[in-house]
Amino acid sequence: MSNKIELLAPGGDIDAIKAAIIAGANAIYCGLDMFNARNRATNISFDALQGIIRLAHKFDCEVFLTLNIVILEHEIKGVVKLLNKLVNTRIDGIIVQDLGVFNLVKKYFPSLLIHASTQLTSHNEGQILFLAKIGASRVNLSRELNLGEIKSLTRLAHDVDVLTEVFVHGALCVAFSGQCYSSSVSVGNSGNRGRCSQACRDEYELTAAGNRYPLNLKDNSAYFDLPELVDAGVDSLKIEGRIKGAQYVYTVVDSWRKQIDKFVSTGQLITDNSALYKVFNRNFTNSFLQGKLTKNMFIDDPRDHSFKHANEQDNAISIVQIQEVQTKLAQQKNVISADVAEKIKYLSIEKPLLSLCFSGGLNQPLKITIVFSGQSYQVFSTSLLQKASDAPVNASVLEKRFKSFVPGYFSKCSTKRCNN
């Protein structure tokens, strides 16, 4: 289906998005402050989204927008209003869970590409065929599938012109994505409405096996499963983490970018994954991909494992040794943060300046010179200028007319008067 392996990165806020772009992501997915399944993420405004699209496209990076919650009836009007705005942007795709939104987009906004969200728990052939029929251009396969199942479903998806993507790094749900109601039942926060309170990360009464966090899964990492994923024909490798910051996003995306590039160019893998342990993690597992569902998928601590991992790697046992290791890792984390901040500080999502220069003369056409994003264009009127009797064309008239024509977009409007 595709000739490249897409690396798809999360973008919870603008800095994380910039970090993903500069680290080499082929695409990013992000959410607005409405209709998305990560309310705890910072998220972005619609104006910022347009700037993000401009910036990403400069780096040949695509942008996908998450509209991946179940929509309530009274929200349909707002969804349609948003889709009306999105269709006039250069967004590369929208990620959808609600089948009603599929129907709206397919009927009234067919130019928008629809990606079936992981919230749809796509795990069998019937679902793939159904999603293709209702307009999905790609499907995010369930995280619970093994490599053989992924290969089989990807082959079928390609037969019906649908791309597949697979999560390769980040948090795992203890339940099937999109089917968990523990948060909704326990505290009234629906995961399908973007408000999951992560009941699987909570502490419970001590179990017979001695665990206080019996539902807490390790993080997913398919870093060394890349050859099998390529062999399965997967089109996109997706990193989870829209709640994570720029330091995390840059480190993970950069590690995966290097791994993909190494494998594509040499057929070999990078064997060192230590960078992935320097940012937030709950230790790692690839048990779903390998089809080995055992207790080793779980870890009895939902907090950051990076410092514990550093202690284990350095065999730090005494208080002094542990303190030295902790200090060293903290310094490394600070260096990463500073390095990322330096790399992204010149990336801007601000609207580019649009400069208009007007010139002309009696019995000559009106000439408008437009300078935008480093490019210059000239436009001439079809009729010639004539001597004004009561409404002359002057600087204030031109500025008023053109500013009202494109409201809120002009940051500069210049005019040149004619001598005659």
What does this structure look like?
The chain folds into 2 domains: 6-303, TIM Barrel (Alpha-Beta Barrel), CATH 3.20.20; 354-405, no CATH class. α1 packs across α12 (319-344), α9 crosses α12 and α11 (306-313) packs across α12. The strands form 2 sheets. It has an 8-stranded parallel barrel, surrounded by 6 helices. A 3-stranded antiparallel sheet has the order 11-12-13, with no helix packed on it. The chain has 420 residues and is an alpha/beta fold. It is built from 13 helices and 13 strands. Helices cover 35% and strands 17% of the residues. β3, α3 and β4 form a beta-alpha-beta unit.
Mean pLDDT: 91
Cα gyration radius (Å): 26 Å
* SS content category: alpha/beta
Classified by CATH, the class of the largest domain is Alpha Beta
Q: Can you tell me the CATH architecture of the largest domain?
A: Alpha-Beta Barrel
Sheet with the most strands, sense and barrel status = 8 strands, parallel, barrel
Number of domains: 2
Topology as H/E string?
EHEHEHEHEHEHEHEHEHEHHHEEEH
| Uncertain spans | 407-420
Classified in CATH, the superfamily of the largest domain is: Aldolase class I
Look up the CATH topology of the largest domain: TIM Barrel
Strand order of the largest sheet: 1-2-3-4-5-6-7-9
Question: How would you sum up the global shape?
Answer: globular
Our estimate of the beta-strand percent is 15-25%
The helix fraction, in percent, is 25-40%
The tally of strands reads 13
N- to C-terminal distance: 62 Å
With helices defined by DSSP (H or I, 4 residues minimum), what is the helix count?
A: 13
